[in-house]
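Notes from hallway chat w/ T.B., transcribed later so I don't forget. T.B. wanted the structure written out for a chain they're using in a teaching module, and asked if we could keep both sequence and structure tokens in one place. Agreed to drop them here.
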Amino acid sequence: GSTVAGVFTLNAFCAAPVILAKQRVQGPVRYLLTNTGNANAGTGEPGLAAAERTCAKLAELTGVDASQVLPYSTGVIGEPLPVEKIEGALQAALDDLSVNNWEAAATGIMTTDTLPKGASRQFQHDGVTITITGISKGAGMIRPNMATMLGYIATDAKVSREVLQNLLLDGANKSFNRITIDGDTSTNDCCMLIATGQAALPEITSASGELFAKLKQAVFEVCMDVAQAIVRDGEGATKFVTVEVNGGGNHQECLDVGYTVAHSPLIKTALFASDPNWGRILAAVGRAGVPDLDVSKIDVFLGDVCIASRGARASTYTEAQGAAVMQQAEITIRIELGRGDCSETIWTTDLSHEYVKINAEYRT
């Protein structure tokens, strides 16, 4: 009786399990099957057959149709999926199913993650408690576009598929699609939202009313928590960085500026070194591709410290002020464009020696 919605990577080399899951999420769904250590991406027709085979085996063990099993994979790209190993582990996984195994599931889907990621919210409506719980994995190859990122969120509310899909799209767009660690969009990104309908409340069939508003708020909070947890656990990350862009003429130019700053290796290494090299921020803003950008209107802040005003070094700024902000574990870079009323926020990390080490040694 569950309703399932999904958002998937836009990478053209999307993995075999993504292809299957996108096809099957339109119908009834009974099981989500996840493996780690192997992405089953870049594997062609054999990879698709392998994903279908693992789903068929789970369907055989549970008595459901294979089309009701959705596969997910994360790990090394381009290697054959170890089908026999996965098939051999399915019965034990089924035997261990429990409503109390959220943390175990979050741990089980980890790859280069250093800790499991999860969040939960509850709210009351007409004397009934509604719960929303989510888990995610990801630490590198993170710039979701719907890293390697997988997210699973479930609620006991009863929600129509159309409303659930739009709710997930909105929630993912404001959370998972606003994080970046290294700018790489994975072949395997997926985020799923499941509504089991077990709570004794009427079905939500429209994006209106008090019950929907409460559910939307809780889902958005869970999405934000588990998305930001991915950034906080970014490979080799020592700093959690918020990039705020305000005063844009439209949302896209705010995103262009935010991502250019968040992806700049020079800015990210300066963050790691706690070096307030504010010129790198100005350079990134200037090359973000915003048409007819008037730099004389731009102000830039590190935390609450104005480092650049009207396109030049702020008269009140001192290097000591910038250095003090850069020593912090959580840093906000705020850019005021002075072009309009639009704003966007991106969350990212610094770039450390450890990130290079982890990814240089990933397959060795």
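Follow-up for T.B.: The chain has eleven helices and 13 strands. Might be a good example for the class.
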